[in-house]
Amino acid sequence: MEYPTFVTGFSGWLTPMFVVYGRSLIETVVIHELGHQYFYGLLASNEFEEAWLDEGLTSYAELQCMEAIVSDGLAPGLRWGGFWTRERLLLSLLRTPVQVDQRSWEFQTPRHFFAASYGKTALSLRTLEGLIGTESFSRAMRSYAERYRFRHPAKSDFVAVVNEVAGKDMTWFFDELVDGTRPFDYGVDGLASVKVPARLRGVFDANGTREEWTEEKIEKLEAAGPSESGTPGTMYRTTVKIRRYGDARIGGDARIEVLVRFKDGTTETRTWDGQGRWTRLEFIKPVEAESAQIDPRGVWLIDENLANNSRGTDGVRRNVVKLMTQLLFSVQFVLHFFGSWS
Fold it and tell me: Looking at the chain, which residues constitute the CATH 1.10.390.10 domain(s)?
């Protein structure tokens, strides 16, 4: 628990929170409560009316610190995945829409308050960091903390600092993920590679002469493969269908990245503005596709459904491990809310 200049922590094998945080519980609690010395202590954020400016910013700092000290071997890691993975999975289990920016007593249940003020805010901030860059995000957090020390800042102050430091208007981001309740979910809806003829049947003008391409001639050409003259052999048309499953959408200059892997080991990356409900990407290559994945760099941590982020040409989702991990966290998530939290 946090008090101005005074922090208490706890840990134990029998506490429900131990199931979620594992052996790193004591480090997690201490770092979180120390973070409050800044975001509600020095900044004097209003915990009751805008809890996310306190708990959410503190949770972001906690997760970043835990990832860093675990990687340096200074604290034990989680049983499965990383700290950000845990947070994504816990939020994905909350099946009802939740708005971050609302007064504490207006939340439907303590569970909704916890999910919005802690997890969703932390994931949103980590997503924001991926969009504007780590350096810009760090400067924004530093400027916010220094400029509004002892001044009781509100959401408008934080958004103004982010826009100023990033050098672009990120208001759409806060409108969707902090003020809004619409689910954020983009995914791969379909992937297929089909064989296409090297040439179409018919009679064509070529170099001032008429050239006829018959079915037999095309089959012989494809069987021979590429020739020294550069005549193409078998080609494949790969079609990737990307869908916006949720109602929330990206804005500004943000893009959804799509990575397509082919069976010869090559890859191609395309981007989509994400405004429509769906889009189709096409590739013509002499090799079939193997899989397609959105957000390969893991920018959109706020995406609510990991299971539809990739797909293979056989129609099988490539997130089996993530789904199994989500099942394990489901049990942990239930146990988590039998314990206390601050």
Answer: 2-182+329-336
